[in-house]
């Protein structure tokens, strides 16, 4: 008399993880239910045979495989054949004949069930087999969910692959989970530098006494810009811009009292040249050709009032024969004159003057 087979509970064998869609999940659950029913039928016939003191004769193999006669659909022969097929790579036709589905039969759950009966061992599925996959690439609410490729932006690719997800709720200030996300120019909390299009790495650190702490790193993918900021007690700092070989020199600027441009700026025009620094320092250089009267030098870049110092020198005449007299400078120009040392009067025409000014641009 053959031994009865163990019948697992439906909860322990049904597929709970919606891995590749509800159609797959439904079909695979139909397979495990059919297998369980086969085991129940097999055990029922053994019980009946024991009661009658004889073993029920199985249906002929051809009838069992065909399944045309309901009387033979769950015979011991059909049960054994179904189990054997579950251990092999059955063809689509064979699978459909046995279970009513044309999907692949070899799955971790089914193999685990068969091994438990055939080998007397418990399968090695582990805890992942009973967990749900994330409902979306930014799902942070499903407990202990499995992460598919691209979850929270990890594993995203370029052409024809998995896109990096957009920042949840279009709000960089409100990002919750750790991850790699895309941002665009109309989002709340986007970096103050660059084009407004890029990716951000969100790095939650800790929640202490109801307050959140963490940081974000952003890289602009339309310009050579990168920066970071920190979250301290639920309050985000301003964005800090990283400086490198392609943005150190450029247009120096400030916004809200914070540096928002390059570190060094230089330029020139008809009035001369200038160098402007991020700390507020500005230097201007220029020159004039003397006349027998006072002259005005317009600075190549304007200063802040009360910060300008002007110096001049002359390259003409005998040593110490001339000096450059300077009136109190304005923010955009200064009046100067080339003076003879011996007479304290204006020198003649055509003598080159070198001029420089130093002050602040803010």
Q: Could you characterize the architecture of this molecule?
A:
Helix 2 runs antiparallel to helix 4 (76-86) and helix 4 (76-86) runs antiparallel to helix 5 (92-99). The chain has 6 helices and 16 strands. Residues 52-59, 67-76, 98-109 and 115-123 have low confidence and may be disordered. The strands form 4 sheets. Strands 1, 2, 3, 4, 5 and 6 form a 6-stranded antiparallel sheet that branches. It has a 5-stranded antiparallel sheet with strand order 9-10-11-16-13, with no helix packed on it. Strands 12-15-14 form a 3-stranded antiparallel sheet, with no helix packed on it. It has 362 residues and is α+β, with helices and mostly antiparallel strands. The protein has 3 domains: 10-130, no CATH class; 151-241, no CATH class; 264-360, Immunoglobulin-like, CATH 2.60.40. Strand 2 (198-208) and strand 3 (211-220) form a beta hairpin. The chain has helices at 10-13, 22-51, 61-66, 76-86, 92-99, 108-118, and strands spanning 179-183, 198-208, 211-220, 226-232, 235-236, 240-241, 254-255, 258-259, 264-269, 272-277, 281-289, 295-298, 309-314, 322-326, 333-340, 352-360. The N and C termini lie far apart (99 Å).
């Amino acid at each position: 008399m053959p031994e009865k087979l163990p019948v697992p509970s439906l909860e322990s064998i049904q597929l709970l993880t919606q891995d590749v869609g509800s159609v797959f999940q439904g079909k695979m659950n139909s397979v495990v239910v059919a297998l369980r029913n086969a085991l129940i039928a097999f055990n029922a016939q053994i019980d009946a045979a024991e009661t009658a003191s004889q073993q029920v004769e199985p249906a002929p193999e051809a009838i069992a495989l065909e399944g045309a006669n309901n009387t033979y659909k769950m015979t011991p022969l059909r049960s054994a054949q179904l189990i054997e097929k579950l251990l092999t790579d059955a063809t689509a036709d064979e699978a459909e004949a046995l279970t009513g589905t044309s999907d692949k039969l070899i799955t971790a759950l089914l193999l685990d069930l068969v091994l438990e009966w055939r080998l007397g061992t418990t399968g090695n599925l582990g805890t992942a087999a009973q967990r749900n996959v994330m409902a979306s690439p930014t799902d942070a609410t499903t407990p202990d969910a499995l992460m598919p490729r691209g979850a929270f932006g990890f594993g995203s690719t370029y052409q024809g692959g998995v896109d990096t997800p957009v920042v949840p709720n279009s709000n960089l200030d409100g990002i919750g989970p750790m991850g790699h996300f895309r941002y665009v120019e109309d989002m709340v909390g986007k970096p103050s530098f660059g084009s407004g299009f890029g990716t951000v790495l969100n790095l939650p650190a800790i929640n202490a006494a109801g307050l959140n702490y963490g940081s974000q790193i952003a890289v602009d993918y339309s310009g050579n810009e990168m920066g970071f900021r920190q979250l301290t007690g639920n309050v985000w700092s301003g964005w800090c811009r990283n400086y490198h070989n392609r943005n150190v020199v450029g247009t120096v600027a400030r916004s809200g009292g914070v540096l928002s441009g390059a570190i060094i700026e230089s330029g020139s025009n008809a009035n001369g040249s200038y160098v402007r620094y991020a700390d507020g320092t500005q230097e201007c250089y220029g020159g004039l050709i003397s006349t027998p009267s006072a002259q005005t030098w317009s600075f190549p870049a304007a200063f802040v009032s009360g910060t300008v110092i002007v110096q001049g020198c002359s390259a003409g005449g005998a040593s110490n024969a001339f000096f450059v007299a300077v009136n109190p400078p304005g923010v955009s120009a200064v009046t100067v004159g080339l003076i003879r040392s011996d007479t304290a009067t204006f020198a003649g025409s055509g003598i080159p003057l070198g001029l420089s000014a130093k002050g602040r641009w803010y």
